[in-house]
Amino acid sequence: MMHHLWIYALILALLVLAALLACVIAALQHLPHGRTAPMLAPALKLAARGDLGLTALRLGHSLTALAALAGLMWQARGWSGFDFACLSFAAGIALALLGRIIPAAIGTAAAEASLMRLGLLGLIAAWLFTPLASLMQLLKRAALRGFGLTFDLADQRDALRDDIAGAIALGHSGGAMQKEARDRLLGALDLSDRAVEEIMRHRRQIEMINADDPPDAIITKMLASPHSRLPVYRDETENILGVVHTKDLLREFDRLLRGEAPEGVEALDILKVAKKPYFIPNTTSLDEQMREFLKRRTHFALVVDEYGALLGLITLEDILEEIVGDITDEFDVVARDSGLKRDANGDYVIDGAMTIRDLNRATDWGLPDAEANTVAGLVIHEAQMIPLEGQVFHFHGFRIEIAARRENRITQVKLRPVR
């Protein structure tokens, strides 16, 4: 009898150990950044081990839980088939709840408190299982090479980003996260996967200053524009010679008004005021461009293709808006979703130049943006033609009607989800 009691006590101890390790694993993944309390020292050492330490803990948890289950099954080896099956089912449920789900929930909800109490246990367990975890990682790499596959650092980053995106989507679908918070987090994650040409302002929409215009016309245009920086061209809009800032123009205007030039304001040379233009390729990723903006201490870049032809412009604010949504002030004339409204029939009337990403954000739809950046581009891609006004198409679960067309551009569409 005492022999059986010792075995059951060992099984219970293994189950408790598995539960504690599950709590440590969850707490490590949810510990707020920057915590330095002395009681967290073991946990911080454990976190410093990185992926190897976490793998060792997971391995220890799995082996401990399996050992507890194996011990229980060994004790029940003489039971009848039905009784053994019932015990196996009940033991599996109990192990999942008590050895994984509940402890992990506690570790998630009280990460710091859990690690203060269990950090040393986790550090010891990681130290014990690290050799085996290292061996498992070597075997994993060997197996991947055997199949002609690789799993380098870039693959790990992609997998981690996918895991984070999945967790964010799950949190939103479960009601734990608001749509705005989800959009901000996913927007930040997507920066490395998206190019500047996807969010740039198209060259048709760029306000420019002609270097040969008279000074009063230049000043009037600068004051009428909602933008603080405008490109300066000569002869043709492709020939960008500089970018002028409103403050620089006002400083020069003030200097001329104070009589430092005999001709007064008429002596204004806009090219002397303008700064050298900053050109970037259209394939530059958003996160790379944001770093370049911060490094160069500038907010404005002109986007060109591989032949040097002007495609559009992008600002630091454009990139930030991919994360936080519209940033508007008293000088902004339109918002990103201003090209979206509903008519009396309930159809969405959409500006053809509106980006698919902005439309998806505003409506929580899932229209694909792999082949086109704008709504008009998506319609042309799917129709394989430039549709006529009044034509109707059905794709991706939507009814789309061409509401307006100007020359070869689709300027407005009506869109309705098909139920």
UniProtKB/TrEMBL annotation:
Places the protein is found: Cell membrane
Pfam families attached to this UniProt entry: CBS, CNNM, CorC_HlyC
Spans traversing the lipid bilayer: 84-106, 118-139
Membrane-topology descriptor: Multi-pass membrane protein
Molecular function in Gene Ontology: flavin adenine dinucleotide binding
Keyword Oxidoreductase: no
Chief place where the protein resides: membrane
Gene Ontology CC, one term: plasma membrane
Annotated family: Belongs to the UPF0053 family. Hemolysin C subfamily.
Official protein name in the record: Membrane protein
The species this protein was found in: Cypionkella aquatica
Underlying gene: corB
